[in-house]
Structure to design on (343 residues):
């Protein structure tokens, strides 16, 4: 089974509990103290990692785009965090015991995350899946790569994985993702997780969840998702680029708890009866019981026998072996018949 060890020692794979990434995105509103509070609350909510966006107005959009959308540059600047502040947040995350990562949008941002923030993995946004030179640059850093697959056709996913592999990196975690914000349940196609598992059996598969609520993530875990990435906010009522689709700490706690419980419930494909269930047989299964008062020496027929709880006597599936046998003692109506009562 596929398992990837992150730079900080955390393991991601099918034999470990789901790895939870709280996607902060822009919900910090450019405020470092808010960002740190989000890191703290993400940890308390059961998340393994808190992830930011390393974008800047220069690395994300072109001058042509800003010319047509002049307000966009101000929005990006408002919701960006400087490299110095990102490093400060990364140090804070280390202090409180939660992994820090961020999605970079240029080579300089990649270098900063690796060299200054000691990110345990590099997250590649869905928009970069056909940016092959950039994929190669990230792959050559030698860190595990978490690749979102939103908007990508099957061949594009295959090509992106091959580019990363050819750059010498086989530490890949693929996230099923639908790049709609928010995404309605009928657009999610969780069964794509099964396709990714079949197509890339050597790599763990996860889910980047852009739906409202928490239940879809649990469904992803049931299908084998090893990573759950979910947008996170302290207050979805506040203004923000994605606050309306993010979940608050109480909901994140519910999501992580539900996903872990689903993971624990999956168990084995093999049919296994636990010791606890074996004990339940004594209370819940039926045994052979006298259908009326029976005298010693009588030859038993089906009419002399009924089946009732508890299951501590002759089992129900052995009733045919009792017929034709002789009783060596009287047996009262509605009481168990035991093997030692038979001749």
């Amino acid at each position: 089974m596929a398992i990837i060890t992150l730079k900080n020692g955390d393991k991601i794979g099918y034999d470990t509990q789901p790895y939870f990434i709280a996607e902060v995105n822009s919900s910090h509103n450019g405020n470092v103290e808010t960002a740190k509070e989000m890191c703290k609350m993400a940890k308390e909510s059961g998340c393994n990692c808190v992830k930011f966006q390393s974008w800047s107005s220069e690395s994300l959009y072109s001058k042509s785009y800003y010319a047509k959308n002049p307000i966009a540059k101000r929005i990006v600047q408002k919701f960006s965090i400087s490299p110095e502040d990102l490093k400060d947040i990364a140090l804070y995350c280390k202090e409180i015991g939660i992994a820090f990562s961020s999605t970079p949008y240029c080579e300089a941002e990649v270098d900063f995350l690796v060299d200054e923030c000691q990110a345990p993995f590099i997250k590649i946004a869905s928009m970069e899946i056909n940016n092959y030179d950039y994929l190669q640059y990230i792959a050559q850093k030698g860190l595990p790569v978490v690749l979102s697959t939103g908007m990508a056709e099957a061949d594009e996913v295959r090509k992106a994985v091959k580019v990363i592999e050819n750059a010498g990196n086989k530490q890949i975690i693929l996230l099923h993702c639908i790049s709609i914000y928010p995404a309605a349940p009928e657009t999610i196609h969780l069964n794509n997780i099964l396709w990714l598992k079949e197509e890339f059996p050597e790599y763990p598969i996860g889910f980047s969840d852009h739906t409202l609520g928490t239940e879809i993530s649990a469904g992803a875990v049931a299908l084998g998702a090893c990573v759950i990435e979910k947008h996170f906010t302290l207050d979805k009522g506040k203004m923000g680029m994605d606050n309306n689709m993010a979940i608050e700490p109480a909901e994140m706690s519910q999501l992580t708890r539900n996903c872990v419980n689903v993971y624990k419930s999956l168990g084995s494909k093999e049919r296994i009866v636990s010791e606890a269930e074996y004990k339940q047989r004594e209370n819940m299964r039926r045994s052979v019981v006298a259908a009326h008062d029976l005298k010693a020496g009588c030859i038993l027929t089906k009419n002399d026998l009924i089946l009732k709880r508890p299951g501590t006597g002759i089992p129900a599936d052995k009733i045919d072996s009792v017929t034709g046998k002789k009783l060596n003692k009287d047996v009262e109506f509605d009481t168990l018949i035991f093997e030692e009562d038979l001749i």
Observations:
- The chain has a mean pLDDT of 96.
- The longest helix spans residues 249-266.
- The chain has two domains: 3-266, 275-341.
- Residues 275-341 form a domain with the Type Iii Antifreeze Protein Isoform Hplc 12 fold (CATH 3.90.1210.10).
